[in-house]
Amino acid sequence: MRLNKTHMPDPRIVTTFILVVVFLGSLLFSDWGNLVSHGGGGAMIRLMGKGLISLELSYDFILLALEASLITLAYAVCAISVAVLFGFIGGLIASGGLFSSIVTKLSAIVFFRALLAVVRSIHELIWAWLIALALGFTPMSGILALAIPYSAILARVYADFLNDVPEPSLQALRTAGATPLQVMLYGRIPAAAKEMVSYGFYRFECCIRSASVLSFIGLQGLGYQIGVSLDDLLFAEVWTLLLFLVGLIILVDYWGSTLRRFL
Amino acid sequence: MSKIHFSVPIFSIGLILLLTIFSWSFFLIYFDFTDGFSLTAVKEFLSRLIGWELGGDSAFLSSQSWFEAFRLGLTTLKMSILAIGIAAVFSFLTFAPGARTMVFSDKGILASPIPAAIFAVIKVSYTLTRGIPELLWAMLIVFVLPPSIFAGAIALAIHNYGVLGRLLGEAVENMDQRPIKALRSSGANSIQILFYCIMPEIFPKFLTYLLYRWEVVIRTTVVVGFLAAGGLGRELKLSMSWFHYDEVGVLLVTYMLLVFLVDYASLILRKYVN
Question: A29 to chain B: which residues are within 8 Å by CB?
Protein backbone atom coordinates (compact mmCIF):
# COMPACT_ATOMS: atom_id res chain seq x y z
CA MET A 1 0.00 0.00 0.00
CA ARG A 2 1.37 3.41 -0.89
CA LEU A 3 0.14 6.96 -0.72
CA ASN A 4 -0.25 8.67 -4.04
CA LYS A 5 1.10 12.18 -3.55
CA THR A 6 -0.10 13.80 -6.74
CA HIS A 7 -3.74 12.66 -6.58
CA MET A 8 -6.47 12.55 -3.97
CA PRO A 9 -5.58 10.02 -1.27
CA ASP A 10 -7.08 6.56 -1.77
CA PRO A 11 -10.41 6.38 0.16
CA ARG A 12 -9.51 2.88 1.34
CA ILE A 13 -6.28 4.05 2.91
CA VAL A 14 -7.96 7.07 4.51
CA THR A 15 -10.76 4.89 5.90
CA THR A 16 -8.29 2.33 7.20
CA PHE A 17 -6.30 5.13 8.82
CA ILE A 18 -9.44 6.53 10.50
CA LEU A 19 -10.49 3.09 11.75
CA VAL A 20 -7.03 2.25 13.09
CA VAL A 21 -6.76 5.60 14.90
CA VAL A 22 -10.24 5.20 16.43
CA PHE A 23 -9.42 1.65 17.53
CA LEU A 24 -6.07 2.61 19.06
CA GLY A 25 -7.76 5.58 20.75
CA SER A 26 -10.31 3.26 22.34
CA LEU A 27 -7.51 0.97 23.51
CA LEU A 28 -5.61 3.88 25.07
CA PHE A 29 -8.59 5.44 26.81
CA SER A 30 -9.77 2.21 28.41
CA ASP A 31 -9.31 1.45 32.05
CA TRP A 32 -6.92 -1.49 32.18
CA GLY A 33 -6.35 -1.39 35.93
CA ASN A 34 -8.96 -3.97 36.86
CA LEU A 35 -7.88 -6.49 34.25
CA VAL A 36 -5.27 -8.11 36.47
CA SER A 37 -7.17 -7.98 39.74
CA HIS A 38 -9.18 -11.08 38.97
CA GLY A 39 -7.37 -14.08 40.43
CA GLY A 40 -8.06 -17.58 39.17
CA GLY A 41 -8.78 -16.68 35.56
CA GLY A 42 -6.05 -18.99 34.34
CA ALA A 43 -7.31 -21.87 36.47
CA MET A 44 -10.79 -21.27 35.06
CA ILE A 45 -9.50 -21.44 31.47
CA ARG A 46 -7.84 -24.78 32.28
CA LEU A 47 -11.12 -26.03 33.74
CA MET A 48 -12.96 -24.92 30.59
CA GLY A 49 -10.38 -26.58 28.36
CA LYS A 50 -10.68 -29.80 30.36
CA GLY A 51 -14.44 -29.64 29.82
CA LEU A 52 -13.99 -29.36 26.06
CA ILE A 53 -11.93 -32.56 25.82
CA SER A 54 -14.15 -34.53 28.19
CA LEU A 55 -17.63 -33.71 26.85
CA GLU A 56 -20.62 -34.91 28.83
CA LEU A 57 -22.03 -37.62 26.57
CA SER A 58 -24.16 -39.73 28.88
CA TYR A 59 -27.48 -40.92 27.44
CA ASP A 60 -29.55 -38.86 29.88
CA PHE A 61 -27.65 -35.69 29.20
CA ILE A 62 -27.79 -36.10 25.41
CA LEU A 63 -31.55 -36.47 25.79
CA LEU A 64 -31.67 -33.28 27.86
CA ALA A 65 -29.54 -31.39 25.33
CA LEU A 66 -31.75 -32.65 22.51
CA GLU A 67 -34.86 -31.45 24.30
CA ALA A 68 -33.30 -28.03 24.95
CA SER A 69 -32.27 -27.80 21.28
CA LEU A 70 -35.80 -28.59 20.14
CA ILE A 71 -37.27 -25.92 22.43
CA THR A 72 -34.80 -23.35 21.09
CA LEU A 73 -35.61 -24.45 17.54
CA ALA A 74 -39.35 -24.16 18.25
CA TYR A 75 -38.94 -20.59 19.52
CA ALA A 76 -36.91 -19.69 16.44
CA VAL A 77 -39.40 -21.29 14.03
CA CYS A 78 -42.38 -19.54 15.63
CA ALA A 79 -40.62 -16.18 15.58
CA ILE A 80 -39.25 -16.44 12.05
CA SER A 81 -42.57 -17.67 10.63
CA VAL A 82 -44.26 -14.52 11.90
CA ALA A 83 -41.31 -12.36 10.89
CA VAL A 84 -41.20 -13.65 7.30
CA LEU A 85 -44.92 -12.98 6.92
CA PHE A 86 -44.78 -9.44 8.29
CA GLY A 87 -41.38 -8.81 6.71
CA PHE A 88 -42.81 -9.68 3.31
CA ILE A 89 -45.85 -7.42 3.75
CA GLY A 90 -43.67 -4.66 5.21
CA GLY A 91 -41.20 -5.07 2.36
CA LEU A 92 -43.96 -4.59 -0.20
CA ILE A 93 -45.03 -1.35 1.50
CA ALA A 94 -41.53 0.00 2.19
CA SER A 95 -40.37 -0.64 -1.38
CA GLY A 96 -43.00 1.85 -2.53
CA GLY A 97 -43.64 -0.32 -5.56
CA LEU A 98 -47.34 -0.73 -4.82
CA PHE A 99 -48.22 2.95 -5.10
CA SER A 100 -48.77 4.76 -8.35
CA SER A 101 -48.88 8.39 -7.23
CA ILE A 102 -45.52 9.87 -6.33
CA VAL A 103 -46.85 11.53 -3.14
CA THR A 104 -48.26 8.37 -1.55
CA LYS A 105 -45.18 6.48 -2.72
CA LEU A 106 -42.71 8.86 -1.09
CA SER A 107 -44.68 9.22 2.14
CA ALA A 108 -45.04 5.43 2.42
CA ILE A 109 -41.31 4.97 1.87
CA VAL A 110 -40.19 7.72 4.25
CA PHE A 111 -42.67 7.01 7.05
CA PHE A 112 -42.43 3.24 6.87
CA ARG A 113 -38.66 3.10 6.57
CA ALA A 114 -38.28 5.44 9.55
CA LEU A 115 -40.56 3.17 11.58
CA LEU A 116 -38.54 0.12 10.54
CA ALA A 117 -35.29 1.88 11.47
CA VAL A 118 -36.59 2.65 14.98
CA VAL A 119 -37.78 -0.93 15.51
CA ARG A 120 -34.51 -2.37 14.21
CA SER A 121 -32.37 -0.09 16.35
CA ILE A 122 -33.32 -2.03 19.47
CA HIS A 123 -31.67 -5.43 19.98
CA GLU A 124 -34.03 -8.40 20.23
CA LEU A 125 -33.09 -9.11 23.83
CA ILE A 126 -33.82 -5.53 24.88
CA TRP A 127 -37.18 -6.03 23.17
CA ALA A 128 -37.48 -9.23 25.18
CA TRP A 129 -36.86 -7.41 28.46
CA LEU A 130 -39.31 -4.64 27.64
CA ILE A 131 -42.04 -7.01 26.46
CA ALA A 132 -41.49 -9.29 29.44
CA LEU A 133 -41.80 -6.36 31.83
CA ALA A 134 -45.03 -5.29 30.15
CA LEU A 135 -46.64 -8.70 29.46
CA GLY A 136 -44.90 -11.12 31.79
CA PHE A 137 -42.05 -13.59 31.38
CA THR A 138 -43.92 -16.02 29.12
CA PRO A 139 -43.08 -17.85 25.86
CA MET A 140 -45.41 -15.41 24.11
CA SER A 141 -43.11 -12.54 25.14
CA GLY A 142 -40.11 -14.43 23.83
CA ILE A 143 -41.67 -15.14 20.44
CA LEU A 144 -42.89 -11.54 20.12
CA ALA A 145 -39.49 -10.18 21.15
CA LEU A 146 -37.78 -12.07 18.33
CA ALA A 147 -40.54 -11.57 15.78
CA ILE A 148 -40.73 -7.77 16.09
CA PRO A 149 -37.12 -6.77 15.25
CA TYR A 150 -36.75 -9.66 12.78
CA SER A 151 -39.86 -8.47 10.91
CA ALA A 152 -38.34 -5.00 10.66
CA ILE A 153 -34.98 -6.31 9.42
CA LEU A 154 -36.61 -8.60 6.85
CA ALA A 155 -38.98 -5.84 5.68
CA ARG A 156 -36.12 -3.45 5.11
CA VAL A 157 -33.93 -5.97 3.27
CA TYR A 158 -36.85 -7.36 1.24
CA ALA A 159 -37.77 -3.80 0.23
CA ASP A 160 -34.19 -3.29 -0.98
CA PHE A 161 -34.27 -6.57 -2.95
CA LEU A 162 -37.57 -5.56 -4.59
CA ASN A 163 -36.16 -2.14 -5.48
CA ASP A 164 -32.93 -3.59 -6.89
CA VAL A 165 -34.70 -5.55 -9.65
CA PRO A 166 -33.27 -4.23 -12.95
CA GLU A 167 -35.54 -1.59 -14.49
CA PRO A 168 -35.59 -2.79 -18.18
CA SER A 169 -37.44 -6.02 -17.34
CA LEU A 170 -40.09 -4.02 -15.46
CA GLN A 171 -40.38 -1.44 -18.23
CA ALA A 172 -41.53 -4.18 -20.59
CA LEU A 173 -44.39 -5.01 -18.22
CA ARG A 174 -45.32 -1.34 -17.84
CA THR A 175 -45.47 -0.69 -21.59
CA ALA A 176 -47.79 -3.68 -21.83
CA GLY A 177 -50.10 -1.75 -19.48
CA ALA A 178 -49.42 -3.49 -16.17
CA THR A 179 -50.56 -1.79 -12.94
CA PRO A 180 -48.05 -1.32 -10.10
CA LEU A 181 -49.55 -4.39 -8.41
CA GLN A 182 -49.05 -6.48 -11.55
CA VAL A 183 -45.49 -5.21 -11.96
CA MET A 184 -44.88 -6.30 -8.37
CA LEU A 185 -46.49 -9.73 -8.80
CA TYR A 186 -45.07 -10.65 -12.21
CA GLY A 187 -41.88 -8.56 -12.31
CA ARG A 188 -40.34 -7.70 -8.98
CA ILE A 189 -41.32 -10.64 -6.73
CA PRO A 190 -40.24 -13.45 -9.10
CA ALA A 191 -36.96 -11.67 -9.83
CA ALA A 192 -36.16 -11.12 -6.16
CA ALA A 193 -37.50 -14.49 -4.89
CA LYS A 194 -34.17 -16.33 -4.79
CA GLU A 195 -32.44 -13.64 -2.78
CA MET A 196 -35.45 -13.37 -0.49
CA VAL A 197 -35.48 -17.09 0.30
CA SER A 198 -31.74 -17.06 0.79
CA TYR A 199 -31.83 -14.12 3.17
CA GLY A 200 -34.78 -15.65 5.00
CA PHE A 201 -32.65 -18.74 5.72
CA TYR A 202 -29.76 -16.60 6.92
CA ARG A 203 -32.14 -14.82 9.29
CA PHE A 204 -33.57 -18.15 10.47
CA GLU A 205 -30.05 -19.15 11.42
CA CYS A 206 -29.59 -15.85 13.33
CA CYS A 207 -32.98 -16.41 14.95
CA ILE A 208 -31.85 -19.78 16.36
CA ARG A 209 -28.86 -18.04 17.96
CA SER A 210 -31.14 -15.34 19.37
CA ALA A 211 -33.66 -17.92 20.60
CA SER A 212 -30.89 -19.82 22.38
CA VAL A 213 -30.35 -16.83 24.68
CA LEU A 214 -34.01 -16.24 25.52
CA SER A 215 -32.92 -17.51 28.94
CA PHE A 216 -32.17 -13.81 29.29
CA ILE A 217 -35.83 -13.47 30.28
CA GLY A 218 -35.92 -16.86 31.98
CA LEU A 219 -37.27 -18.92 29.08
CA GLN A 220 -36.29 -22.55 28.48
CA GLY A 221 -33.91 -23.73 25.81
CA LEU A 222 -30.18 -24.19 25.26
CA GLY A 223 -29.14 -20.94 26.96
CA TYR A 224 -31.16 -21.86 30.04
CA GLN A 225 -29.48 -25.27 30.37
CA ILE A 226 -26.06 -23.69 29.76
CA GLY A 227 -26.78 -21.27 32.61
CA VAL A 228 -27.74 -24.17 34.89
CA SER A 229 -24.55 -26.07 34.06
CA LEU A 230 -22.40 -22.94 34.45
CA ASP A 231 -23.79 -22.39 37.95
CA ASP A 232 -22.20 -25.70 38.96
CA LEU A 233 -19.06 -25.07 36.85
CA LEU A 234 -19.84 -28.22 34.84
CA PHE A 235 -17.97 -27.14 31.71
CA ALA A 236 -18.18 -30.60 30.15
CA GLU A 237 -21.96 -30.16 30.05
CA VAL A 238 -21.65 -26.54 28.88
CA TRP A 239 -19.53 -27.54 25.88
CA THR A 240 -21.88 -30.38 24.94
CA LEU A 241 -24.80 -27.92 24.91
CA LEU A 242 -22.78 -25.36 22.93
CA LEU A 243 -21.91 -28.01 20.35
CA PHE A 244 -25.59 -28.88 20.02
CA LEU A 245 -26.25 -25.22 19.24
CA VAL A 246 -23.40 -25.10 16.71
CA GLY A 247 -24.73 -28.33 15.17
CA LEU A 248 -28.18 -26.81 14.80
CA ILE A 249 -26.67 -23.72 13.14
CA ILE A 250 -24.60 -25.88 10.76
CA LEU A 251 -27.68 -27.92 9.78
CA VAL A 252 -29.75 -24.83 8.93
CA ASP A 253 -26.79 -23.24 7.15
CA TYR A 254 -26.33 -26.39 5.05
CA TRP A 255 -30.05 -26.63 4.30
CA GLY A 256 -30.14 -22.99 3.18
CA SER A 257 -27.10 -23.22 0.92
CA THR A 258 -28.30 -26.51 -0.62
CA LEU A 259 -31.72 -25.02 -1.33
CA ARG A 260 -30.08 -21.96 -2.86
CA ARG A 261 -28.33 -24.12 -5.44
CA PHE A 262 -31.66 -25.63 -6.52
CA LEU A 263 -33.56 -22.35 -6.90
CA MET B 1 -42.59 -49.05 -9.72
CA SER B 2 -41.51 -45.62 -10.85
CA LYS B 3 -38.57 -44.05 -9.14
CA ILE B 4 -39.44 -41.10 -6.89
CA HIS B 5 -37.14 -38.15 -7.52
CA PHE B 6 -35.87 -36.29 -4.50
CA SER B 7 -36.54 -32.60 -4.96
CA VAL B 8 -34.79 -30.19 -2.63
CA PRO B 9 -37.32 -27.32 -3.01
CA ILE B 10 -40.32 -29.61 -2.38
CA PHE B 11 -38.57 -31.28 0.55
CA SER B 12 -37.78 -27.80 1.93
CA ILE B 13 -41.37 -26.60 1.66
CA GLY B 14 -42.56 -29.74 3.43
CA LEU B 15 -40.00 -29.42 6.20
CA ILE B 16 -40.80 -25.72 6.70
CA LEU B 17 -44.52 -26.54 7.01
CA LEU B 18 -43.81 -29.39 9.43
CA LEU B 19 -41.51 -27.29 11.60
CA THR B 20 -43.97 -24.40 11.69
CA ILE B 21 -46.94 -26.59 12.60
CA PHE B 22 -45.03 -28.52 15.28
CA SER B 23 -43.46 -25.43 16.84
CA TRP B 24 -46.70 -23.50 17.05
CA SER B 25 -48.63 -26.48 18.40
CA PHE B 26 -45.92 -27.05 21.03
CA PHE B 27 -46.38 -23.57 22.47
CA LEU B 28 -50.15 -23.48 21.97
CA ILE B 29 -50.61 -26.80 23.78
CA TYR B 30 -48.26 -26.20 26.68
CA PHE B 31 -48.80 -22.51 27.34
CA ASP B 32 -51.81 -20.31 27.71
CA PHE B 33 -51.15 -17.41 25.39
CA THR B 34 -53.96 -15.25 26.72
CA ASP B 35 -52.39 -15.40 30.18
CA GLY B 36 -50.99 -12.02 31.15
CA PHE B 37 -51.73 -10.37 27.86
CA SER B 38 -53.60 -7.11 28.31
CA LEU B 39 -53.45 -3.78 26.54
CA THR B 40 -53.83 -1.89 29.82
CA ALA B 41 -50.60 -3.50 31.07
CA VAL B 42 -48.81 -2.29 27.93
CA LYS B 43 -50.24 1.22 28.31
CA GLU B 44 -49.28 1.37 31.97
CA PHE B 45 -45.77 0.17 31.18
CA LEU B 46 -45.32 2.79 28.44
CA SER B 47 -46.52 5.61 30.67
CA ARG B 48 -44.09 4.48 33.38
CA LEU B 49 -41.32 4.33 30.76
CA ILE B 50 -41.69 8.06 30.07
CA GLY B 51 -42.20 8.77 33.77
CA TRP B 52 -45.70 10.19 33.30
CA GLU B 53 -46.92 9.82 36.89
CA LEU B 54 -43.69 11.34 38.22
CA GLY B 55 -44.43 14.63 36.48
CA GLY B 56 -41.53 17.04 36.94
CA ASP B 57 -39.40 14.39 38.66
CA SER B 58 -39.18 12.23 35.55
CA ALA B 59 -35.62 11.42 34.51
CA PHE B 60 -36.52 12.76 31.08
CA LEU B 61 -36.55 16.29 32.53
CA SER B 62 -33.32 15.94 34.49
CA SER B 63 -30.21 17.17 32.70
CA GLN B 64 -28.09 15.11 35.08
CA SER B 65 -29.62 11.80 34.04
CA TRP B 66 -29.14 12.71 30.37
CA PHE B 67 -25.52 13.64 31.02
CA GLU B 68 -24.94 10.36 32.83
CA ALA B 69 -26.64 8.43 30.02
CA PHE B 70 -24.43 10.09 27.39
CA ARG B 71 -21.32 9.33 29.42
CA LEU B 72 -22.34 5.66 29.59
CA GLY B 73 -23.17 5.77 25.89
CA LEU B 74 -19.60 6.81 25.20
CA THR B 75 -18.34 3.81 27.19
CA THR B 76 -20.63 1.54 25.20
CA LEU B 77 -19.34 3.07 21.96
CA LYS B 78 -15.78 2.39 23.12
CA MET B 79 -16.68 -1.21 23.92
CA SER B 80 -18.15 -1.70 20.42
CA ILE B 81 -15.03 -0.24 18.78
CA LEU B 82 -12.73 -2.45 20.86
CA ALA B 83 -14.87 -5.48 19.99
CA ILE B 84 -15.01 -4.93 16.24
CA GLY B 85 -11.32 -3.89 16.19
CA ILE B 86 -10.13 -7.07 17.88
CA ALA B 87 -12.39 -9.18 15.67
CA ALA B 88 -11.10 -7.38 12.57
CA VAL B 89 -7.44 -7.92 13.44
CA PHE B 90 -7.82 -11.65 14.04
CA SER B 91 -10.08 -12.34 11.08
CA PHE B 92 -7.76 -10.35 8.82
CA LEU B 93 -4.78 -12.39 9.98
CA THR B 94 -6.51 -15.72 9.40
CA PHE B 95 -8.71 -15.33 6.34
CA ALA B 96 -6.05 -16.16 3.72
CA PRO B 97 -4.89 -19.50 5.19
CA GLY B 98 -8.58 -20.17 5.91
CA ALA B 99 -9.72 -19.90 2.29
CA ARG B 100 -10.05 -23.15 0.37
CA THR B 101 -8.81 -21.70 -2.91
CA MET B 102 -5.65 -20.39 -1.24
CA VAL B 103 -4.69 -23.70 0.35
CA PHE B 104 -5.80 -26.34 -2.11
CA SER B 105 -4.74 -26.55 -5.74
CA ASP B 106 -7.23 -26.39 -8.62
CA LYS B 107 -7.78 -30.13 -8.45
CA GLY B 108 -8.45 -30.06 -4.72
CA ILE B 109 -5.13 -31.64 -3.79
CA LEU B 110 -3.38 -30.28 -0.72
CA ALA B 111 -0.12 -28.49 -1.30
CA SER B 112 1.34 -29.94 1.90
CA PRO B 113 -0.16 -31.23 5.14
CA ILE B 114 0.78 -28.22 7.31
CA PRO B 115 -1.28 -25.57 5.43
CA ALA B 116 -4.10 -28.09 5.23
CA ALA B 117 -4.03 -28.55 9.01
CA ILE B 118 -3.95 -24.77 9.59
CA PHE B 119 -6.85 -24.44 7.14
CA ALA B 120 -8.89 -27.01 9.07
CA VAL B 121 -8.19 -25.37 12.42
CA ILE B 122 -9.18 -21.93 11.13
CA LYS B 123 -12.38 -23.21 9.50
CA VAL B 124 -13.41 -25.02 12.69
CA SER B 125 -12.65 -21.91 14.75
CA TYR B 126 -14.85 -19.80 12.43
CA THR B 127 -17.74 -22.28 12.70
CA LEU B 128 -17.49 -22.58 16.49
CA THR B 129 -17.15 -18.87 17.23
CA ARG B 130 -19.83 -17.89 14.72
CA GLY B 131 -22.32 -20.51 15.85
CA ILE B 132 -22.27 -19.40 19.48
CA PRO B 133 -23.90 -16.00 20.10
CA GLU B 134 -22.14 -13.10 21.84
CA LEU B 135 -24.20 -13.43 24.97
CA LEU B 136 -23.20 -17.06 25.57
CA TRP B 137 -19.55 -16.09 25.04
CA ALA B 138 -20.09 -13.35 27.61
CA MET B 139 -21.53 -15.90 30.06
CA LEU B 140 -18.28 -17.88 29.71
CA ILE B 141 -15.92 -14.89 29.67
CA VAL B 142 -17.10 -13.52 33.02
CA PHE B 143 -15.61 -16.64 34.63
CA VAL B 144 -12.18 -15.73 33.26
CA LEU B 145 -12.02 -11.93 33.19
CA PRO B 146 -13.31 -9.49 35.78
CA PRO B 147 -16.57 -7.85 34.69
CA SER B 148 -15.61 -4.79 32.64
CA ILE B 149 -16.12 -3.28 29.22
CA PHE B 150 -13.06 -5.24 28.15
CA ALA B 151 -14.66 -8.58 29.07
CA GLY B 152 -17.73 -7.58 27.08
CA ALA B 153 -15.59 -6.50 24.14
CA ILE B 154 -13.80 -9.87 24.11
CA ALA B 155 -17.11 -11.76 24.08
CA LEU B 156 -18.35 -9.64 21.17
CA ALA B 157 -15.01 -9.97 19.40
CA ILE B 158 -15.00 -13.80 19.57
CA HIS B 159 -18.35 -14.13 17.80
CA ASN B 160 -17.59 -11.43 15.24
CA TYR B 161 -14.20 -12.96 14.48
CA GLY B 162 -16.09 -16.00 13.20
CA VAL B 163 -18.61 -13.93 11.26
CA LEU B 164 -15.99 -11.73 9.58
CA GLY B 165 -13.66 -14.66 8.93
CA ARG B 166 -16.35 -16.63 7.21
CA LEU B 167 -17.48 -13.64 5.11
CA LEU B 168 -13.90 -12.95 4.01
CA GLY B 169 -13.22 -16.63 3.33
CA GLU B 170 -16.32 -16.85 1.13
CA ALA B 171 -15.33 -13.65 -0.66
CA VAL B 172 -11.92 -15.16 -1.48
CA GLU B 173 -13.41 -18.51 -2.53
CA ASN B 174 -15.98 -16.81 -4.79
CA MET B 175 -13.37 -14.65 -6.54
CA ASP B 176 -12.69 -14.99 -10.23
CA GLN B 177 -10.04 -17.73 -10.30
CA ARG B 178 -8.57 -16.89 -13.73
CA PRO B 179 -6.20 -14.08 -12.70
CA ILE B 180 -4.99 -16.21 -9.80
CA LYS B 181 -4.30 -19.14 -12.13
CA ALA B 182 -2.51 -16.83 -14.55
CA LEU B 183 -0.28 -15.50 -11.82
CA ARG B 184 0.41 -18.97 -10.43
CA SER B 185 1.32 -20.38 -13.84
CA SER B 186 3.77 -17.53 -14.33
CA GLY B 187 5.53 -18.62 -11.16
CA ALA B 188 4.07 -16.40 -8.42
CA ASN B 189 4.02 -17.87 -4.92
CA SER B 190 1.06 -17.71 -2.51
CA ILE B 191 2.31 -14.55 -0.78
CA GLN B 192 2.63 -12.71 -4.10
CA ILE B 193 -0.82 -13.89 -5.19
CA LEU B 194 -2.22 -12.70 -1.86
CA PHE B 195 -0.82 -9.19 -2.21
CA TYR B 196 -1.18 -8.59 -5.93
CA CYS B 197 -4.37 -10.44 -6.70
CA ILE B 198 -6.48 -11.07 -3.62
CA MET B 199 -5.89 -8.02 -1.43
CA PRO B 200 -6.92 -5.37 -4.00
CA GLU B 201 -10.28 -7.10 -4.42
CA ILE B 202 -10.85 -8.24 -0.84
CA PHE B 203 -9.71 -5.19 1.09
CA PRO B 204 -12.63 -2.86 0.17
CA LYS B 205 -14.98 -5.77 0.93
CA PHE B 206 -13.25 -6.25 4.26
CA LEU B 207 -13.85 -2.60 5.18
CA THR B 208 -17.50 -2.86 4.11
CA TYR B 209 -18.13 -6.05 6.12
CA LEU B 210 -16.33 -4.53 9.08
CA LEU B 211 -18.55 -1.45 9.06
CA TYR B 212 -21.70 -3.56 8.61
CA ARG B 213 -20.75 -5.72 11.56
CA TRP B 214 -20.02 -2.61 13.63
CA GLU B 215 -23.69 -1.66 13.19
CA VAL B 216 -24.68 -5.07 14.56
CA VAL B 217 -22.12 -4.91 17.35
CA ILE B 218 -23.31 -1.55 18.70
CA ARG B 219 -26.81 -3.02 19.10
CA THR B 220 -25.48 -6.10 20.88
CA THR B 221 -23.01 -4.19 23.05
CA VAL B 222 -25.85 -3.08 25.29
CA VAL B 223 -27.05 -6.64 25.84
CA VAL B 224 -23.56 -7.93 26.55
CA GLY B 225 -23.14 -4.97 28.94
CA PHE B 226 -26.03 -6.46 30.94
CA LEU B 227 -23.83 -9.44 31.79
CA ALA B 228 -20.29 -8.19 31.48
CA ALA B 229 -21.08 -5.04 33.43
CA GLY B 230 -20.22 -2.16 31.16
CA GLY B 231 -21.72 1.05 29.86
CA LEU B 232 -25.40 1.49 29.06
CA GLY B 233 -26.25 -2.19 29.46
CA ARG B 234 -25.17 -2.37 33.09
CA GLU B 235 -27.10 0.77 34.01
CA LEU B 236 -30.14 -0.46 32.09
CA LYS B 237 -30.10 -3.64 34.14
CA LEU B 238 -29.75 -1.74 37.43
CA SER B 239 -32.54 0.70 36.57
CA MET B 240 -34.78 -2.19 35.58
CA SER B 241 -34.15 -4.10 38.78
CA TRP B 242 -34.91 -0.96 40.84
CA PHE B 243 -38.09 -0.41 38.76
CA HIS B 244 -36.85 3.09 37.79
CA TYR B 245 -38.66 2.88 34.49
CA ASP B 246 -38.20 6.54 33.60
CA GLU B 247 -34.43 6.05 33.80
CA VAL B 248 -34.81 2.98 31.60
CA GLY B 249 -36.60 5.27 29.13
CA VAL B 250 -33.75 7.80 29.10
CA LEU B 251 -31.17 5.05 28.64
CA LEU B 252 -33.21 3.51 25.81
CA VAL B 253 -33.43 6.82 23.96
CA THR B 254 -29.66 7.30 24.38
CA TYR B 255 -29.11 3.76 23.10
CA MET B 256 -31.22 4.43 20.01
CA LEU B 257 -29.42 7.70 19.32
CA LEU B 258 -26.10 5.85 19.59
CA VAL B 259 -27.30 3.18 17.15
CA PHE B 260 -28.40 5.84 14.64
CA LEU B 261 -25.06 7.61 15.05
CA VAL B 262 -23.11 4.43 14.32
CA ASP B 263 -25.40 3.48 11.41
CA TYR B 264 -24.84 6.92 9.93
CA ALA B 265 -21.06 6.88 10.42
CA SER B 266 -20.92 3.41 8.88
CA LEU B 267 -23.05 4.50 5.90
CA ILE B 268 -20.82 7.53 5.23
CA LEU B 269 -17.62 5.49 5.44
CA ARG B 270 -19.02 2.68 3.28
CA LYS B 271 -20.07 5.16 0.59
CA TYR B 272 -16.62 6.76 0.79
CA VAL B 273 -14.79 3.43 0.41
CA ASN B 274 -16.82 2.28 -2.59
Answer: 78
A30/B139 Cβ within 8 A: no
**B146 with A125: Cβ contact below 8 A:** no
Measured between CB atoms, does A32 come within 8 Å of chain B? yes
By CB neighbour count within 10 A (0-12 exposed, 13-18 middle, 19+ buried), where does B141 fall? buried
Q: What is the full DSSP assignment across B101-137?
A: HHHB-TTS-BS-HHHHHHHHHHHHHHHHHHHS-HHHH
Q: pLDDT tens, A185-241?
A: 888 999 999 999 999 999 999 999 999 999 989 999 999 999 999 999 999 999 999
Spatial separation of the C-alpha atoms in residues B48 and A191, rounded to whole Å: 47
Task: Say which of A73, A134, A263 has its CB closest to residue B45.
Answer: A134
Domains observed in chain B: 8-49 (no CATH), 56-273 (1.10.3720.10)
Residues B34-63 pLDDT 10s = 665 677 878 888 888 887 777 767 777 788
Question: What domains are defined for chain A?
Answer: 69-262 (1.10.3720.10)
C-alpha to C-alpha distance for B29 and B19, rounded to whole angstroms? 15
The helices-and-strands tally (H runs, E runs) of chain B is 12, 0
The ipTM assigned to this model is 0.89
